[in-house]
From TrEMBL:
InterPro entries assigned to the protein according to its UniProt record, in alphabetical order: ActR_PrrA_rreg, CheY-like_superfamily, Sig_transdc_resp-reg_receiver, WalR-like
Record GO terms (molecular function): phosphorelay response regulator activity; transcription cis-regulatory region binding
Modification type 4-aspartylphosphate: residues: D64
Function: Member of the two-component regulatory system RegB/RegA. Involved in transactivating anaerobic expression of the photosynthetic apparatus. It is a transcriptional regulator that is responsible for activating expression of the puf, puh, and puc operons in response to a decrease in oxygen tension.
Originating species: Pontivivens nitratireducens
Gene Ontology terms: cellular component: cytosol; protein-DNA complex
Keyword Nucleotide-binding on entry: no
Segments forming domain Response regulatory: 15-129
Gene Ontology process terms (BP): regulation of DNA-templated transcription
Protein name: Photosynthetic apparatus regulatory protein RegA
Keywords: Activator, DNA-binding, Phosphoprotein, Transcription, Transcription regulation, Two-component regulatory system
Gene3D superfamilies associated with the record: 3.40.50.2300, Homeodomain-like (1.10.10.60)
Domain of life: Bacteria
Amino acid sequence: MSVATAELDLGPDPSLLLLDDDEPFLRRLSRAMEKRGFDVREAGSIADGLNAVKASPPAYAVLDLRLDDGNGLEVVEALREARPDARIVVLTGYGAIATAVAAVKIGATDYLSKPADANDIVSALLARPEDKPAPPENPMSADRVRWEHIQRVYELCDRNVSETARRLNMHRRTLQRILAKRSPR
């Protein structure tokens, strides 16, 4: 039985905040989540998201990481303070382990890379903490693991190229070339 047709246990408060600056995606996801029983509120900017959290903190949130006016992690922090029991999923088109770790450390329940469909998002929102994800069908390549490690160290060094290069025992220009490239598959 699919998540769309299953009777979902959303609890007494099915409020859901969707934050994304991609309007077509936001509208599609909003309709899909309403069909699943959520009471959806949309926000297209960090400022709108923060205002929605202040007005009435939702029980659930799906937040884009990178928006035109800032970082979705600001809204994660505000929501976690306003409502500690909220279930928060961070979405991004720039999937990297470092940002996933940062999102989870400040209170996100889960982290999904775009494109994620409504069923994946609902599963992440409603997953119990003891549930373990299935092993990946297509694990990361060695090149991708290396790239992810470099990205993590780079984030931990506050995006300081010289410090990252020193810690990785790598020439600074080599590191800059790696950081300028897209992530390997």
